[in-house]
UniProtKB/TrEMBL annotation:
Cited Gene3D superfamilies: RbsD-like domain
InterPro entries: RbsD-like_sf, RbsD/FucU_mutarotase, RbsD_FucU
Lineage, broadest ranks: Bacteria, Pseudomonadati, Pseudomonadota, Alphaproteobacteria, Hyphomicrobiales
Catalytic activity line of the entry: alpha-L-fucose = beta-L-fucose; beta-D-ribopyranose = beta-D-ribofuranose
Protein's name in the database: Fucose-binding protein
Protein species of origin: Neorhizobium lilium
Amino acid sequence: MLKNIDPALNADVLYALRAMGHGDTLAIVDTNFPADSVARHTVLGELLRIDNLSATRAMQAILSVFPLDTPLQPSVGRMEVMEEPDTITDVQHEVQATIDAAEGRSARMYGIERFAFYEKAKQAYCVIATGETRFYGCFLLTKGVIPPNA
């Protein structure tokens, strides 16, 4: 156990989040996503899991240590509902609220068509599978920077 580290973050996840650099992307996916086969194409090359958490709770844990990229560009993408790209699902609403709370500002997610999401996830640093059972609980995060102390 570590102090000030969310216990939901296991050692493998912490290692990957720390190893990532500015501009690297992270895929957080639901239980229906082809996580293992997609993860084999990523930089890390293996699937990471936080199986016992919803996408919202996993996002909360990850954002406790993971800086999002600057507000000048979109840094969180969501998988779009097929043939309804403007529809925001309940899980996406919840994750949006979690992102806004973690960032202390509105950080709007951008939509990614389902099959384009699969391809972008293959190009990510890693894939983290959650225990989310609701459809479209899949997100891409772009890592930002931590500024030096002033």
